[in-house]
Every structure is written in C-alpha cells, then in structure tokens.
Amino acid sequence: MTRTIRFGIIGAGLMGREFASAAARWLHLLDLDFRPEIVAVCDTDEGRAGWFRDRVVPAEGLHRDYRELLARDDVDAVYCAVPHDLHERMYIDILQAGKHLFGEKPFGIDRAANQAIMAEVKRHPNLVVRCSSEFPFWPGAMRVIEAIKSGRLGRIIEVRAAFLHSSDLDPNKPINWKRMVEKNGEYGVMGDLGMHVLHIPIRLGWIPTSVSARLSNIITERPDGRGGVVPCETWDNAMITAESEQGFPMLLEVKRIAPGEMDTWSLEVIGTSGCARFSTKQPKTYWYLDYEPGGQQAWSAVDLGYRSAYPSITGDIFEFGFTDAILQMWAAYCDEVTNGEHMRGSFRCATAEEATLQHDILMAALDSHKTGRSVDPRAAAALLG
Questions:
Q1: Which pLDDT score is estimated for 384?
Q2: What is the CB neighbour count within 10 angstroms for residue 180?
Q3: Which of 81, 179, 248, 262 is most exposed, with minimal Cβ within 10 Å?
Q4: Helix, strand or coil for residue 116?
Q5: Chain region(s) in the chain for CATH 3.40.50.720
C-alpha cells in the first residue's frame, strides 16, 4: 500500500517550484510505498502563488498567512524555503503545529536562532526534521562515499570540498536579500551554501577541531532596482581550512563569484592507498586512483551513467542531472517519514543535528576571519550552549 504524504509549501520561489516539479515526476521512481502530494502553498507574492495555482493546487489551497496553512488538518509535512531571518519563527511554528519539517539551510540566522530551533526540535522527537542538501545523491558522490566506507583509500590524508558558482559575478545584478545581513545573516555565502560542502564530511564523522577562514566581499555595492545603489553587506566567497578530529586537513570552498563556474560541486578525498574524486562539472565521470607501494600512480575514469539511490525508469546508459538529484533527495525524505529507521535508501537527508554542526563550523569560520586566528567550533558552541 502506498502512503501519501500531504505537503504544504511555505515559500513559492525557485526551490518550492523544484519540489513541485519533483512531486509531479514521482512516477519516474520505481516500486516505492510512499508519494508526496502538495495540497497547500503559502506566499505573499501574487506571481509566485499564481504559478502554483495554475499548475499545482486549486485556489483554495493558496494562503498569504503561513499560520493558516499550518492550521490545516490535511497537511502532514511542510517544506519551508524562505529568507534566513524567518527560519527561527517559522520552523518553530511548524513543529509546534505537529508537522514534519523539511527546511532550507541554515537552521537559524545566527547562533541564538539555531539554539532556539534545536530546542524545539528536541521537544518533537516524533517529527522528521531534515535540511535540504541534494548533492550527495549524485551517482558520482555516492561512489566517493562508497570508496571511503569500504576502506579502499587507506588512511585519509586530506579532503577538498567545494561549491562554486558565478551567480553574483555581474556587478549590475540588482541586490537581493542574500546580500543583506539582516535577511541572510552575517556569515553570507557560508550560510547559504555551506551545507553543500559539509554534509558528507559531517556524515562521515570528519568534524573539524580547528577552523581558519578567509572571507571576501568582492562586489561591495549593487543597484537597488529603483535607480539607486546600495551596499552589499555579506560575504561573496569563503575559503576555509580545517583540521578534522582524525588529524587530516580539509579545504572547504563556497563561492558566489567564481568566474567560469556556473554551478559546480566537487569532492576529492586523498588516501594512502587510493583517492576518489567527483565533480558535477563532469557529471558522468567518477575518478579514482588505486595505489600499492612501489606501484604506478595513475588516475582512472569511470563513465557512470544513471544509477541512483532510488531506482527509476531511466536506463543506466543515460545521464543524471540536478533535477534528478532533487528528486532523489525528496525520495529519501519521504522514505524516512514513511519508514523511519527501516527506510529503503542507504543515505538520509541532512539531519537537524548535522545542520547545527554545519552552523557551528561556519560561525567558527566567521570568528576566525574576524580575529585572524584558528577557532575550535566545538569549544565556541559549548561556550554558548
């Protein structure tokens, strides 16, 4: 029997529409005992709400006040994709309404907001609270994870993870909320993109004990859309070096201004017996290096094809893409809501606890940039917690 999970969406922007598209493509997946159904949408923008009215939900399913959506008995779970300054109040209200929560990162605009959200999460252990992060569901990323877990790489020497794009390269692009401290948070690009580079390291237990960061505000002002110019207050790029609890270094990069990169996620893990690498810039290719003492050192490439965590109708010879990763991520979330510890998939979406670790690491990076010193994210979090 197939369980239908009835969703409400708060925030009908880009990622809300991506979820709607994934739900509409659910027949792409094979032999699942769960499916999402979007029954209600909340947004104050008439254009965004109208998109959903014309394609997804009837007019009575649209709301301007998110509390009306939360009061509906026919909503089991909520996807919330709104500016960061709204996360604390809305995430808490969603949980207090008894709804499962799939939230966008970060879980709180600052440390105090994160602590408030997590206190509420702990009051509702029966609710599945997860954070959006789709890149681990790419077949190439799954191959890297598999190589690490198998032990084939030997002792890990170093890790490099990056998420690079050029969305803010054009200086004539009008300012948006992600460039405003009061809306986005002081950590800038790190809060918006940091989970993408930290999800897999955190899941594997590679928790930093020391963080050093260099942050850059490259374009310091932008058009305000009304003929004027206003300051850009948040960080465009971040380069973070960290040392893991296991003693190896990690280089983490998140950038909104990376010329030549439209939207590139990558992970490279170097070990004493082997290496593994994947980048969405070459979405069909998984790179690996197997090494024996005295042997040849040569990278090899595997053409991946379409082999996903949740099987689909697409043949193995075809290519996996961003919308497929979104679909797989949503399958993992619905799987866990339905089946809990007995979920079919092998990789869970990012947990609230992992989102908090990510938050602590990025706040330590912000502190490091301010002070010019390395910061232990665990010590800083304990001091404030």
A1: 46
A2: 19
A3: 262
A4: helix
A5: 3-131
Residue with tokens 């993992």: 332
pLDDT of the residue at 378: 81
| Length of the chain counted residue by residue | 385
8 Å CB contact between 40 and 75: yes
d(C-alpha 60, C-alpha 50), whole Å: 12
Give the pLDDT of residue 379: 73
At 278, which helix (H) or strand (E)? strand 274-279
Compute the distance between CA of residue 48 and CA of residue 41 in angstroms, rounded to an integer. Answer: 10
Which residue from 94, 96, 87 is spatially nearest to 115, judged by alpha carbons? Answer: 87
Two structure tokens written together for 174: 């009008």
Residue 93 burial (CB count, 10 A): 17
Q: What is the CB neighbour count within 10 angstroms for residue 133?
A: 23
Using the structure block, give the residue that is written with the tokens 């070990």: 271
State which fold the 135-317+348-371 domain adopts: Dihydrodipicolinate Reductase; domain 2 (3.30.360)
CB 320 within 8 A of CB 265: no
Enumerate the H helices of the chain as residue ranges. 14-24, 46-55, 66-70, 87-96, 111-122, 139-150, 181-184, 189-203, 322-339, 352-371, 377-384
Rounded-to-integer distance, Cα 162 and Cα 251, Å: 8
Tokens of 169: 């390269």
How many angstroms separate the CA atoms of 265 and 252, rounded?
11
Q: Are 64 and 44 in contact (CB under 8 A)?
A: yes
370 dihedral zone (left: phi>0; alpha: psi -120 to 50; beta): alpha
Q: Cα–Cα–Cα angle for 71, 42, 188, nearest 5°?
A: 115
How far apart CA 383 and CA 193 sit, in angstroms, is 25
Are 125 and 100 in contact, with CB atoms under 8 Å apart? Answer: no
Tell me if 117 sits within 8 A of 138, measured CB to CB: no
For the chain, what percent of residues have pLDDT higher than 70? 98
CB 361 within 8 A of CB 377: yes
DSSP type of residue 61:
G
Residues of the chain with CATH 3.30.360.10: 135-317+348-371
Low-confidence ranges of the chain (pLDDT < 50): 383-385
Fold entry, domain 3-131: Rossmann fold (3.40.50)
What pLDDT, on the 0 to 100 scale, is given for residue 381? 53
